[in-house]
Amino acid sequence: MASFIVALGAFLLLHSPASASVVEISVREHGICKQFSLPIFASAPTAIYNIPQVGNDIEAAAWAIYDATRTTPHDTSNIIKNTTTSGTFNIHVQLCIPTNGKHEQTLQIATHGVHYDGRYWDSAYHPEEHSYVEASLAAGYSILTYDRLGVGQSDILDAYTVVQAPVELEILRQLTLMARNGTLYDIAANLGPSNGASTAVQKPEKVVHVGHSFGSFLTSAFIANYGSLTDGAIITGYLLTEHLASAGSTSWAVEYPSSLAFDRPSGYVVCGKVGIQNIFFGGNTSTAYTPALLEYGNSIKQPAPVGEFASAFSLLGNYGPSFTGPVQYFLPEFDFYVCRGDCNGLANITQLAATYPNASAIEVALQPNTGHALPLHNNATAGFAVNFDFLERHGL
Ligand SMILES: *[C@@H]1O[C@H](CO)[C@@H](O)[C@H](O)[C@H]1NC(C)=O
Ligand SMILES: *[C@@H]1O[C@H](CO)[C@@H](O)[C@H](O)[C@H]1NC(C)=O
Ligand SMILES: *[C@@H]1O[C@H](CO)[C@@H](O)[C@H](O)[C@H]1NC(C)=O
Ligand SMILES: *[C@@H]1O[C@H](CO)[C@@H](O)[C@H](O)[C@H]1NC(C)=O
Ligand SMILES: *[C@@H]1O[C@H](CO)[C@@H](O)[C@H](O)[C@H]1NC(C)=O
Ligand SMILES: *[C@@H]1O[C@H](CO)[C@@H](O)[C@H](O)[C@H]1NC(C)=O
Known about the structure:
The chain is α/β, with parallel strands linked by helices. The protein has a domain at 9-45 and 86-243 and 319-393: Alpha/Beta hydrolase fold, catalytic domain (Rossmann fold, 3-Layer(aba) Sandwich), CATH 3.40.50.1820. It has helices at residues 2-8, 57-68, 127-130, 132-138, 165-180, 183-190, 196-199, 214-225, 273-280, 291-299, 306-311, 336-339, 349-355, 380-393, and strands at 11-16, 21-28, 31-49, 79-98, 103-111, 141-146, 206-212, 232-236, 254-255, 268-271, 304-305, 326-332, 361-367. The radius of gyration is 20 Å and the shape is globular. The chain binds 2-acetamido-2-deoxy-beta-D-glucopyranose (6 copies). One 2-acetamido-2-deoxy-beta-D-glucopyranose binds at residues 367-369, 379, 382-383, 386.
């Protein structure tokens, strides 16, 4: 905790009359961050899926067995009724601008995966070694992180019918549009005290999309469907092969959130600590990560809505000829969830190029001796450097 306070330096909590949104400002060693709630209008196709109700621990474990059962469909055949979901969703965002803006005109928009919220990118535990946000600021990049719908401080809505993949994809598109046209920066500048660092940048010239795990499902689908809205992508902890998710959701050891003191409605499930280890930690237990990192990774976990898993298929393998930028696939060597524990030799550039035929570059890098949660392993900063090197080499 000590390092958290040091990293924040000055920490202010303000109430902005303009938007009635609570804004938190944190001054970092290499920049400044503002956290606030952003109302985003989105309309997207959704569905009522044939999935079991989850209202207690027994039903949570039974859901995982159902989800992992070999004959359970994960496609449109599981739809009872097609619907449309429209609304204004409150999304909790954090916009960080570097003090030394070597690349401040490039904004990264980072989308976290399932079982976490935006804090995945911004570890409060030894941030100088484990926060991708801190590393981005140190490298001179702006970065926007956010809590996806249904987690953290964003709206927690119906787990069966509302928090579904297409809605989340549309929220990412709206966030990107607001970043590109300057709205996001105007809102950030008007919240709280004006500050040189956060008002100097009107809007980014380039936007790079970064994902982890389910956030990479979303990022892959985003760059495939909306290629003109992105200048490049970093896909971490995700590769579409027969091994993706083959370990099955029973390995997550889920419970009903209220059993672990989370306040969530029906249909949310949360990992036990062993589930967090199974999914997110890998490599040699004496060199890859520490017990403290596992403890921290467990402490920031978030419940996940079952409708997200039922609808996730819509994001996979989208054909993306409109994407013309560079993309880096960054795989933890020993990713259990994505590669069934060993990513060596699984990436096939020919197949990736078939998905993104107009990409200017497709690169694959493996981060050695690391599990699914890249930032929470000992060698995380060396991995971040691989990401920033990729961006620099491609003029981003
Ligand atoms: C829902 O829409 C999909 C196409 O998006 C279609 O394949 C499916 O049959 C529809 N299901 C129902 C129950 O209408
Ligand atoms: C910017 O984009 C957002 C999201 O699509 C939109 O609501 C807003 O009207 C746009 N603002 C300008 C000035 O174009
Ligand atoms: C893990 O690393 C330690 C320390 O380098 C080494 O002694 C041990 O053999 C390694 N274990 C495995 C299974 O590779
Ligand atoms: C590449 O993009 C152009 C438009 O930018 C499109 O006409 C073409 O079909 C794309 N190429 C492939 C192989 O899809
Ligand atoms: C990569 O994929 C292509 C196209 O599916 C296939 O022809 C090729 O054999 C694959 N390469 C390897 C090393 O598996
Ligand atoms: C740490 O990561 C870097 C970048 O991927 C890699 O070159 C290096 O070998 C890794 N070090 C260890 C000890 O795994």
